Amino acid sequence: MELWRPDRVYFEADARNTVIGRRVRDYCIKNNVEMLETTSHNQVRNLPGENEKAKYAAAKKTLIVGIKRSMKLEVCKPSADYQFSLMTNCPGSCEYCYLFTTQGKKPYVRVYGNLEELYDTIDKYIEKKLPHTTMFEAASTGDPLGVEHITGALKETIEHFGRLKQGKLRVVTKYAAVDPLLDINHNKNTRFRFSINTNYVIKNFEHNVDNLWDRLKAAEKMALAGYPLGFLIAPIILHENWKGQYKEMLEALHNHIGQQQNSFITFELIQHRFTMNAKNIIEERFPNTKLEMDPEKRLKKWGKYGRVKYVYEKNQAQEAKDYLTGLIKQYFPNGHIQYFT
Ligand code: SF4
Question: Which residues does UniProt assign to the signal peptide (predicted)?
Fold first, then answer.
């Protein structure tokens, strides 16, 4: 479990003096990381690299500290009511990453300094929906635990939700560095989810994230710290011996957390999908990818904004759904499957 270290950090002028900006600056000084300036976190140019593959690798080692300008929160179905960003993108390099579709051209990692403004916005959204509880997703534009050792923003956000009565938070990660989050006042208002997968998927497609065992150990620690837990099995990939490997994965999960009293565990099941745009980017950045992306073998589906995505054929998707549902019921009788998509 190695913590990410950027090669260079760009600061927007307004972000330098925020709490996050100062923390990142201290991190850079301590770790001898180059500090640069940018006029906008949306337009960082001249990153090193002669081809797309090298440029992508350089961007994944670049951190930008900016100010989030828009405070309009987007709807986030099916996992929550709204989503907000503590950061955009992620130090990881998963070959199938859903961000290729939305962030394809700007794969550098961005974090935002204006947390207080964000918390005010969240509080207002909650107020509008009273007396109902409002659920927020903090990880739909990146993996905030991947930069937590640099910003500390996730800890503060979990503590903010810990003080709220009608607001709940959901986070998902492929990282395991949860120690700074264990002894804080989360008040059970944050459901902490881990994205898990078979060893085949992790070994072949998930780079610069933590391995399954570290994620499972981290999940165990979070369960002991009293957090409500959840697991995303995503993307479900029907590789050779997928049944055997998904069974092993759920067995291992059961061995780590099955005995916890805290057993109202949620599961979200997401089958592998791709867009043609993402496929082109993936093939440029990972020319030897083993990811199966043949549109002829897939079912065409229309998503948000008229985007076409390719999912498994109906009978294959149904088989995966039935099989995984059966395993989850067997190993986690109190587990709750929220959706299969
Ligand atoms: Fe993308 Fe998540 Fe992998 Fe980061 S950890 S590269 S956000 S899939």
Answer: none
CA of 283 to the centre of ligand 1 (A): 17
Write the pLDDT tens digit of every residue in 169-212: 999 999 999 999 999 999 999 999 999 999 999 999 999 999 99
Task: List, in sequence order, every residue forming a beta bridge with 169; answer none if it has no partner.
Answer: 136, 190
In angstroms, what is the span from residue 142 Cα to ligand 1's centroid? 6
The contacts of residue 272 (CB under 8 Å, 6+ apart) are: 96, 235, 236, 237, 238, 311, 312
Closest ligand 1 atom to the C-alpha of 175? 5
Place of tokens 């994230």: 209
Checking phi first, is residue 188 left (phi over 0); if not, alpha (psi -120 to 50) or beta? left
For residue 292, count other CB atoms closer than 10 A to its CB: 12
Cα distance between residue 38 and residue 201, in whole Å: 37
Name the architecture of domain 8-340.
Alpha-Beta Horseshoe (3.80)
Atom of ligand 1 nearest to the CA of 91: 4
Establish whether this prediction's ipTM goes over 0.95.
yes
How far apart, in whole angstroms, are the C-alpha atoms of residue 267 and residue 237?
16
